[in-house]
């Protein structure tokens, strides 16, 4: 009689892909928690019964898999578009913050998106002005 893998019994397809990707990378749930910021209990729940998560892209980056495959189960397991160098240099929690910001833009109206992006684009000028003020006082 063929043995079944009971650890996969009852998992959602998304949960199974999460588990498979994490195990393939050789990471424990605790290690993922430390690197991505998702709690171990939340990750365990997602690996059992999850259908999606705001952490999907960050987990895909950590696991080295295609985010579309991880989220939807379609496309190649690997070979996703490479992340930009500037994003790869950031810490995982910073990558997660950027991902959350980008996802929040998707639910905004076009006018709200334009306004939010104008604010973001003004940040370098604001920081330069702050540096100039600090430099003049120092």
TrEMBL record:
Coiled-coil region list: none
SMART domains: HTH_XRE (SM00530)
GO molecular function, one term: DNA binding
Residue stretches making up the HTH cro/C1-type domain: 18-70
Gene3D superfamilies given in the database record: lambda repressor-like DNA-binding domains (1.10.260.40)
Entry superkingdom: Bacteria
The protein's name: XRE family transcriptional regulator
Organism: Cupriavidus basilensis OR16
């Amino acid at each position: 009689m063929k043995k079944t893998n009971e650890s996969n019994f009852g998992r959602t397809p998304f949960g199974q892909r999460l588990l498979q990707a994490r195990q393939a990378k050789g990471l424990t749930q605790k290690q993922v928690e430390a690197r991505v910021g998702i709690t171990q209990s939340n990750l365990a729940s997602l690996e059992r019964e999850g259908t999606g998560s705001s952490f999907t892209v960050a987990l895909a980056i950590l696991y080295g898999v295609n985010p579309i495959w991880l989220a939807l189960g379609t496309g190649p397991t690997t070979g996703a578009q490479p992340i930009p160098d500037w994003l790869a240099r950031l810490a995982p929690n910073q990558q997660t913050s950027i991902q959350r910001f980008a996802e929040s833009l998707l639910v905004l109206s076009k006018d709200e998106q334009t306004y939010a992006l104008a604010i973001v684009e003004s940040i370098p000028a604001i920081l330069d002005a702050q540096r100039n003020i600090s430099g003049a006082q120092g």
